[in-house]
Amino acid sequence: MRSAGQLVVDRQLHAAEIARFHSHVVCGPTPSDCNIWTGAIGADGYGRFYLTRDGVGFCVRPHRYALAIAGGSVAAGVLSLHECDNPVCVKVAADTDPQQHVVSGSQGDNMERMARMRRGGGRHAVRRCDSRGVRRERSVALREAVRHGWDTAAVQAAQLGDQPTLW
Ligand SMILES: [Zn+2]
């Protein structure tokens, strides 16, 4: 994975690549809903977007790619974080939008964010127990929930992942 390096996405130069990216995304109907990646999902529950540039194949995390589309590039060392706590979300909201999804941040931002979620209780308090396997299952369930278009009930069921026996 080269996802931690600099990632440049040029709207003209990479137009076909961007179109392929969007073909793997199903958008939620409201600003608070996530846009869900429906392409490959790795063992860690995060998406995989495979690219070939200058004859070299590599893969990136789709939410990092989404940030690079929005800003033109993501610098090396800059993290792409999920304010919505959904690893397969690729929505980059406007700064003025009350609900943020994928945002860029530093390692320090990430530590602060994780601490805030631990204190926050609610669904985040449950999610800190997630193992990679459970996270991947939830990501795959979300992908299935939107495979034929956005299905609000199926998405909510997948996000809740109401299966304590798995833990
Ligand atoms: Zn989201």
From TrEMBL:
Highest taxon of the lineage: Bacteria
Name listed for the protein in its UniProt record: Uncharacterized protein
Organism this protein belongs to: Mycolicibacterium chlorophenolicum
